[in-house]
Design brief:
single chain, about 290 residues, mainly alpha, ABC transporter transmembrane region fold, two-stranded antiparallel ribbon, elongated, ABC-type transporter activity, transport, ABC1_TM_sf
């Protein structure tokens, strides 16, 4: 629609019906795009809420039936219910948007080739080459996430110990020692989060620059090879690149949420392997008695 609209503005003859059809088509396209995006977010959030509720329900039922927690600490179980459940919600809400990135890139590449010819591959190649970078960042995100989860579990466990034995800590004047221990764990957790934030900010900052790089490379090579470039072609290609940018911008967040969700799934699997409290029915009563 953008290409036909620009070509019509350069034409010498005017046609009222054709111009109104172009404007109406552009309006309908934008309305469909907006409604489709809103529907996608609504479905993703509904799925995320259902997934989080189901997983937390499963975790609570499992914890209520535990015979012992083995090497697991109480703080780790609390962290699983509060933190990892939220990671699963984010994966369902944002992670699914990653699947649309390659589809949009392929469709944009095909349309650019139709408009510019073989040089249309160059701009799309810049977008496609950005995805391996996202895969590398996802591995780093998962690594930092595992370290951060371990530090968070230690901090929660230490705080539970302080709250449980607060009378003894006050009596023996161990407040300073425990506060230094908690502060040390918090500083380690903060350093890990800062490193993860640096990598995340780099990927978020690079995404808008990719459009400029792709446009410059495509138009420079196209003009260098002696091909003609009209305003309608140039603005249409830039519009396609901007459409591809949305899929590129959500890629860092999708990769981050999926990486964190993979760590959360592993923690749920470990907690699911804990021994349950066996129960048996009492022959002289309808209630169930626990067997320790």
């Amino acid at each position: 629609m953008v290409k036909h609209l620009l070509e019509y503005t350069q034409a010498t003859e005017s046609n009222l019906q054709y111009s109104l059809l172009l404007v109406l088509g552009l309006l309908l396209t934008e309305v469909v795009r907006s409604w489709s995006l809103a529907l996608t977010w609504a479905l993703n959030y509904r799925t995320g809420v259902r997934l989080r509720g189901a997983i937390l329900t499963m975790a609570f039922k499992k914890i209520l039936k535990l015979k012992n927690i083995k090497e697991k600490s109480l703080g780790e179980l609390i962290n699983i219910c509060s933190n990892d459940g939220q990671r699963m919600f984010e994966a369902a809400a944002v992670g699914s948007l990653l699947a649309g990135g390659p589809v949009v890139a392929i469709l944009g590449m095909i349309y650019n080739v139709i408009i510019l010819g073989p040089t249309g591959f160059l701009g799309s190649a810049v977008f496609i080459l950005f995805y391996p970078t996202m895969m590398f960042v996802s591995r780093l995100t998962a690594y930092f996430r595992r370290k951060c989860v371990a530090a968070t579990d230690d901090r929660v466990q230490k705080m539970n110990e302080v709250l449980t034995y607060i009378k003894f800590i006050k009596m023996y004047a161990w407040v300073k020692a425990f506060s230094q221990s908690v502060q040390k764990i918090r500083e380690e957790e903060r350093r890990i989060l800062e490193k993860a934030g640096y990598f995340q900010s780099i990927t978020v900052g690079v995404a808008p620059i990719v459009v400029v790089i792709a446009s410059v490379v495509t138009f420079s090579v196209h003009m260098t090879l002696g091909f003609d470039l009209t305003a309608a072609q140039a603005f249409t290609v830039v519009t396609v690149f901007n459409s591809m940018t949305f899929a590129l911008k959500v890629t860092p967040f999708s990769v981050k949420s999926l990486s964190e969700a993979s760590v959360a799934v592993d923690r749920f699997k470990v907690s699911d392997s804990l021994p349950l409290l066996c129960v048996r029915s009492c022959p002289w009563h309808n209630s169930l008695l626990p067997v320790l």
